Amino acid sequence: MPSKGRREVIMSKVWSLFLWLGLPCLCVICFSQSWRKL
Questions:
Q1: How many Å apart are CA 4 and CA 26, to the nearest integer?
Q2: Dihedral of CA 23/29/32/36: which sign?
């Protein structure tokens, strides 16, 4: 039981970190793509 709870906490932290790092990267990529087209 404790290992499962700890694993869920780690997964939630990984997801939050992925969102904080991934979303800005996606925004920058999309922005650079659109800027390059112009």
A1: 31
A2: negative
- pLDDT tens digit sequence for 12-35: 999 999 999 999 999 999 999 998
SS3 38: coil
Q: Give residue for tokens 């039981």.
A: 1
What token pair was written down for 14?
Answer: 């990984």
Q: Give the residue extent of every domain in the chain.
A: 1-38
Copy the structure tokens of residue 30: 């999309």
Question: Is the pTM above the cut of 0.70?
Answer: no
**25 vs 32: CA distance, rounded Å:** 10
